[in-house]
Design brief:
Elements lengths: L7 E6 L7 H15 L3 E6 L5 H15 L2 E6 L1 H13 L4 E5 L5 H5 L6 H9 L1 E6 L2 E3 L2 E3 L2 E5 H16 L3 H13 L5 E7 L2 E7 L1 E5 L2 H7 L12 E6 L4 H12 L9 E6 L1 E6 L8 E5 L2 E5 L3 E5 L4 E6 H8 L1
Parallel strand pairs: 1-2, 1-3, 3-4
Antiparallel strand pairs: 5-18, 6-7, 6-17, 8-11, 8-15, 9-10, 9-14, 11-12, 12-13, 14-17, 15-16
């Protein structure tokens, strides 16, 4: 466990979030210098180098018994968490994204200055993480329509900017576009089921699951992940389900299938000649080779959380 005054090795994604990266950098540096805390800031201007820089940050933290800090959106936090988890380093977070589900769930301030000050008096707490074929996720992972929605959303953000309205517009484009349902075989607890579905969503974030009305949010407290899928439906029904989710009533809708689990294997039926399938992890889309295994990591992530929140949880 690092000392209370351990150096902070900060990975700042210049492309994340609503705030200008220069302002975020200035704020972080001003807060830490005023506090007299040793730190080093690694700026990522090319998103393709994010994982490389994250690994370098973990190596530097290992050499000085420091703490790795992710300053960015959920995708940035995922990349840095992956490196920190693998290197057994403590992770700190300064949220910079649009939705910030991970930070909100763990009580981390969304304001850059407040989040940076929180790092100075935070408490290390173990946090459950999920794995997809040994790739870590903090918030959610999915197959099918959701990865395509994320790709469309990112394309729209590049053209029109980052906002919830742009995200909603992109979602409508995806739903009304041409898409084929997934044919998947799900194996868990010794049972096998075949399903045709537009998407399979696996959640590891209570706030997100509660917002859309999924009862299995409580499964996270029992060391499980929550799977949400639906029977194959048309565009009109899919739009209705999206509305139910926005109203926090998705769990009560007809055709929704949800359950908690600790390990699940998914075998998608791919088109001839196709060997990989797109999987979304915390807002980033990857191509993985089936079968796709979802499971709870046996090793939690060591996360810096606000002391008052951590003390309340312990009580």
């Amino acid at each position: 466990m690092p000392a209370a005054e351990a150096p902070l090795i900060i990975v700042l994604n210049a492309g994340s979030g609503r705030d200008d990266a220069a302002d975020a950098r200035r704020t972080i540096e001003d807060v830490l210098r005023e506090a007299g805390r040793e730190f080093r800031l690694l700026l990522v201007e090319d998103a393709s180098r994010l994982r490389e820089v994250a690994q370098r940050a973990v190596a530097e933290a290992g050499s000085c018994d420091g703490i790795v800090v992710a300053a960015g959106g959920d995708g940035t936090i995922n990349a840095v968490a992956q490196a920190a988890h693998g290197g057994r380093r403590v992770l700190g977070v300064v949220p910079q994204g649009t939705f910030n589900l991970f930070g909100r769930t763990h009580g981390i301030p969304l304001d850059t200055a407040l989040a940076t000050r929180m790092l100075l008096d935070a408490q290390v707490e173990p946090v459950q993480v999920g794995l997809v074929n040994d790739r870590l996720f903090l918030v959610n992972a999915s197959l099918g329509l959701y990865p395509r929605l994320l790709e469309d959303r990112e394309a729209f953000k590049q053209q029109y900017g980052r906002s919830r309205w742009v995200a909603a517009w992109a979602a409508l484009k995806t739903v009304f576009g041409e898409h084929r349902p997934l044919s998947i075989r799900i194996e868990r607890k010794g049972s096998i089921s075949d399903l045709r579905t537009p998407t399979l969503f696996v959640g590891n974030n209570r706030l997100q699951l509660e917002r859309i009305g999924i009862r299995e949010a409580d499964a996270l407290d029992e060391g499980q992940l929550a799977a949400v899928t639906l029977r194959n439906v048309g565009t009109r029904s899919l739009l209705w389900l999206m509305l139910r989710g926005a109203l926090g009533q998705l769990g009560d809708a007809d055709g929704i299938i949800s359950f908690g689990f600790t390990r699940m294997t998914v075998r998608p039926r791919l088109a001839l000649g196709v060997r990989r399938i797109k999987v979304a992890l915390d807002g980033e889309v990857l191509s993985l080779t089936p079968p796709i295994e979802f499971r709870v990591s046996p090793e939690p992530l060591a996360l810096l959380k606000p002391r008052a929140r951590a003390d309340a949880a312990a009580a």
